[in-house]
Amino acid sequence: MQVTQTHRKTVVFSSIRRWLDRTEIHNPRVANWLCRLIPSQCPFARDIKLGSDRILLHIPPLCKLNPFYDELMGLRFRALSYLADECHQDITSYI
């Protein structure tokens, strides 16, 4: 039973990854929205400390926790490329 649940999660994640990878951008409003929604870089790791020395908790970079990080970065790149190449929009505010 445990293998079946793991297999289902793998299938669902793979399907979402494929969908994100295949998504094309054809609308400037959607492209702008994606560029605002998806951060340009992975947030840094954090250490939660007690006082100045003792680390209570280490939070890894959030991109390590997101199973779709690479696909979202690809989608953001496609949105930026669409805005720059097709719409001739200045994208420096998104970088």
Parts with pLDDT < 50 across at least 5 consecutive residues:
none
**Main beta sheet strand tally, sense and closure:** 2 strands, antiparallel
Average of per-residue pLDDT values: 89
Rg, alpha carbons: 18 Å
Instruction: Estimate the helix proportion, in percent.
Output: 55-70%
C-alpha end-to-end distance? 46 Å
- Write down the secondary-structure element order: HHEEHH
Percent of residues in beta strands? 5-15%
User: Structural class, judged by helices and strands?
Assistant: mainly alpha
Question: Judging from the principal axes of the Cα atoms, what is the shape?
Answer: flat
Give the spatial strand order of the biggest sheet. Answer: 1-2
Number of H/I helices: 4
Count of spatially separate domains? 1
Number of strands: 2
How is this structure best described in words?
- The chain has 95 residues and is mainly α.
- The protein has one domain.
- Helix content is 56%, strand content 12%.
- The protein is built from four helices and two strands; from the N terminus they run ααββαα.
- Strands 1-2 form a two-stranded antiparallel sheet.
- A hairpin with a 3-residue loop joins strand 1 and strand 2.
- Helix 2 crosses helix 4.
- The chain is flat and about 50 Å long.
